[in-house]
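Marked as duplicate of an earlier ticket. Keeping the data here for the record.
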Amino acid sequence: MTEHKLFIHNTLTRKKEEFKPLHPGRVGMYVCGPTVYGDPHLGHARPAITFDLLFRLLKNEGYKVRYVRNITDVGHLEHDADEGEDKIAKKAKLEQLEPMEVAQHYSNRFHKAMDDLNVLPPSIEPQASGHIIEQEALVQKILDNGYAYERNGSIYFDVEKYNTKYRYGILSGRNLEDTINASRTLDGVDEKRNQVDFALWKKARPEHIMRWPSPWGNGFPGWHCECTAMGRKYLGDHFDIHGGGMDLVFPHHECEIAQAVAAEGEQMVRYWMHNNMITINGQKMGKSLGNFITLEQFFTGDHPKLDQPYSPMTIRFFILQAHYRSTVDFSNEALQASRKGLDRLMEGFATLGRLAGIDGGEITESYAEGLSERCYAALNDDLNSPIVISHLFDACRLINQVADKQTTITPDGLEALKRVFSLFAFDLLGLKPEADGNEQREESFGKAVDLLLDVRQQAKAAKDWATSDKIRDDLAALGFAVKDTKDGATWKLEK
């Protein structure tokens, strides 16, 4: 285990806290995954990349991490409410498919997109439909403890009764009275005691495709049940971290807390973490709003709002350039800037591979050690990836100075810098060279340019200025900046 202290912002306490796992050396982490009724979009990429960064950091710090990320394939109704059709079932009817066929298709699409974004797979990826028994047991326990009631074959959580002993709204900061009054005004009265009550189990209408037997009749679990039931099954009665998008704070995560406390008398989760939204023109990006751009559309450029295709690594870099708790507004200009920034980092690393160390060089191992400490300090301060990127850009400036013969680096300093750069850019931030820039090709490419510059140097020595200038100008036209120094020519690819 390392001595670095990790601080994360806990939504529950609204402050940064030092992370101390329940069990030394082990971390249990649950993150809400996708509802698989459509193609993954940029809004799905953000929590996936945010918690992938946390997963990578914890593993790097020496923790054994059990990372659970669910697949919602049942129970998530239209408009995130307790009425209307199941989102999967609705899609199945439209496409004349079995609901599980829809869920499998879009799960496969989600996994492909995650692979493209270099998001590591979780330790366990449970499906809601595979844990109906666990969800029924949770509902029964809440009923037995007196915090739920039955109406016409459906089971609802009694929020008002729960609130008399425990406080409902501790995560979101909502006042129950205001919520109840607002919901009465807006929604009128149905079979619930209060409109703020939420479904634990819904009776299936005759036309409802997805249904399971239960002590209360044929039906299906409420959306909020799955995470409480599966979190407890795979991580125990208490675990360290629960993450997801900020849009899940209310009602989903608020309801999760209420279910856990109503069932067991205490909370399950110690640290709640939430990433902020991706927006388009200031409005949340999401399928329900119809303003989303799928990840495949980003990768192909096939969308009216896109000026060009953007590679998976450009998307990953774009998300990591902002702190996970800040909003990120989509624009082509922002993505193009991210592409240039990513190119700059990748070119810096490629240049690093071409450098030679010199005994007695001005830059030593201490530079790499300092860079490592600064990057660790940023990541351990609530996953501050933008600061890490800025430190890596500083390293790129130094690398270019060495390449341009403005300074020198020792062999040990060079190797240390390679290790540190690779650790933070690739292992922790999860970036990787794009497919068209494999190492062997890069090396051959660099040697070819070096050969041309040798020919140019020979031409200069023979005072053949025409050939020398032509090589320089032709390389410039191809994007290679050639710089003459007192120790010879250097080059850099400017993308």
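See parent ticket for discussion. The CA atoms of residues 267 and 280 lie 36 Å apart.
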